[in-house]
Predict the 3D structure of the following.
Amino acid sequence: MGSDCSSVVAEELHVLAVDDSLVDRKVIERLLKISSCKAVTAVESGRRALQYLGLDGEKSSVGFDGLKVNLIMTDYSMPGMTGYELLKKIKSSSNLREIPVVIMSSEKVLARIDRCLEEGAQEFLVKPVNLSDVKRLRDIILQGYENDEDKGYQKRKLQDLSPTSSLARDLTPLKSASASASAQQSCLKRPRL
Amino acid sequence: MEVVGQLQKQYVDFITSLFREAYLDDQYVQLQKLQDDSNPEFVVEVVSIFFEDSEKLLNDLASSLLVSISLFWVFILCLRPSLLLMVVLFFLLFLFQLYSQQQVVDFKKVDGYVHQFKGSSSSVGAQRVKNACVTLRNFCEEKNLDGCSRYLNLVKQEFYLVKNKLETLLRMEQQILQAGGTVPLLEQVPLLWKQ
């Protein structure tokens, strides 16, 4: 069973929340704690978030207190560095790009949503975020860890397959390196809802 | 026990009216759901932060919309000029103000503050405040100083109204708890306000 192999459960999830609004930080922190996330770190700016992630200095996704960050939730509109800019910085870091990043915004602007998803955001949540949003998100992230476990198993299996097998044929298009396909790839890598 | 029952009924009536009159919306219910025995003061804490934040934002907004040259009006009146001179000066200043109002007010900054206010009021469920902020932002986009000033007053008004209501609501909750009862959960409130 996948759940037996899963090395990450909700109670171990460490989430980094980034929002310039104190009210929103308090609410998101509570939402995450109620959804059984082990640790929530809330910071007020993109710059602080990068400091915490060690992106401006040491190279490590371990926070100061030694907990690895499993999910980053950031507000879009923030003074200084926007959530989008933070997303780009995270995705361009070899250490941190695997961490799912969720963008939150009170404004449902399609162009904004597209831009964030294209840049690799896991999801775009419209504020105010509620409990069902967070629980669904938590399940997606945990499912992602389970899928990674399964993928590892699948990779070993594939080495035994011949190039003419149906599975190998299905996988070949994935290997093409065109820009549109790479966007598709990131979609496929995202765990299904 | 009778006292508790009465207090509870008053509470339900009051909160129902708040929803019906759109002072509060569903987001407030969501906040109450996040409160439990492990965090029994959650709503009070969030609402308190909202009050503090908002007072600051309102101050920032007021000062950023202040057109400094309006002080000249006061200055002129203090000079006690002859009527003719006063008319001429007023007219000149009026023209000057028309010309320079775009340059004096930083609408982008104002918009930034309003955006913040809209966000925090939305996060606690203060619907009327949020709606007033939305309209205020439209005036900012149009660089309509008159509209902005008027709507800032409305936003302020709505904020103090909802602050008052929320303080009353939270006080009523305290009274119920002190009388030994439990605060009625909103799911149990008749769905009048949803119509």
User: Anything to note?
Assistant: Chain B has a mean pLDDT of 86.
